């Protein structure tokens, strides 16, 4: 193992031995398939992780159920105190965890640290502690009854076992959003991370497990099963799992949704984004250009919220594109762990293939490639990086906008920005809404009338609707998620916690009469 890698692993107590156990249900184990964690920057094998065997998964599910029975009776503010301690333990390791995210996922260091900060934030929101505070205000309601001497309560109770199936691109934060709310709400949470980022999940679970242990709470309150498709499918099918929170592709999400629905479980889906930025003639380009640059190129285009479509008003299109191109030309691929790097690698080899196919498809459709359009060759890369998955961020201008065409409709998880030119805002809003996905969108304007249109009923139909703010980089305070094929689920802030509980409507009769609702008379 290189010193670059071993220093980071050691700082997080991850063994640098041959095989690492990738299952935690109160104790660490792993007898299943062996998974390699590969460094996207160098191609180095970082670790071999033993995933869950089918028996270990069953046991982990049973332990999660038992752990739920324990944690549901711990008063919510006490659970909030656990969440607070988890926040402190995470904050103490923030930079080390951030470095591990960069090492294993490939995003640049400030974004790796930023993602851990996002986990800390969901626990600790601005000045108050978000999930900690939530643990005291996950309130039900008292509803007026139409019957004398009766009251109706709407009561939120813990749900059960929440399984979190997370993607490689946010290997820490997305779990954090779910865990914080799920634990505050009184559930046991079982995490099945992406098979290619096991080390991030092992490091996070170690930190959480030490807090739970100190407080005498069963470890399976925050369990971990690493593994591949088989393990994921078994988790999704299991009757022991009351809610599945899945982040990933539309194709897999569609199956997950069906399977969970067929057994009447709850599902929270966070699927594809195919996010657009719209730039009006009155926009402040000194803000809009760098924001689009970050949205399209940041995380090498591997956020659900990355900017993939750019709609420019005809009057500013040439100026905008030349400014954007000059930012693109300043980019140098580099080691995401080095502080000057803005462009890291794609996460794996498969993503490079997907990038190349998408660029070919654009070329075949007659699009002009303004910049980029190919992988970096070894001559462009430092010797240590030639094993990495580096591609050139690309700007493509098809001859026209046609949102029924795959080049506009499909999400490509890579730094490719597709550009169209419009004359009227309504036309651009139509394009924004004309694709299957509905995660994020952003409008650049100073005109209040445009803002009104954009956020109103005939405006953007995405879950995140920004103004003079890019499509990516949402804060945790607002509910995160999208509409349409993005899956309608909401995580993180806002009212997202309401999905992690089961609601009961309890009608209570305090009187000496037993009247029926709607005045129904059933007397003999
Ligand atoms: C994701 O890509 O799945 O809004 C999550 C953002 C981040 C989260 C992205 N806060 O870009």
UniProtKB/TrEMBL annotation:
Enzyme active site: 270
SUPFAM superfamilies: ALDH-like
Coiled coil: none
Record bears the keyword NADP: no
Domain Aldehyde dehydrogenase: 31-503
Enzyme class: oxidoreductase
Superkingdom classification of source: Eukaryota
The protein's Enzyme Commission number: 1.2.1.3
Keywords: NAD, Oxidoreductase
Gene3D superfamilies: Aldehyde Dehydrogenase, Chain A, domain 1 (3.40.605.10), Aldehyde Dehydrogenase, Chain A, domain 2 (3.40.309.10)
Subunit organization: Homotetramer.
Family: Belongs to the aldehyde dehydrogenase family.
Name of this chain's protein: aldehyde dehydrogenase (NAD(+))
Organism: Somion occarium
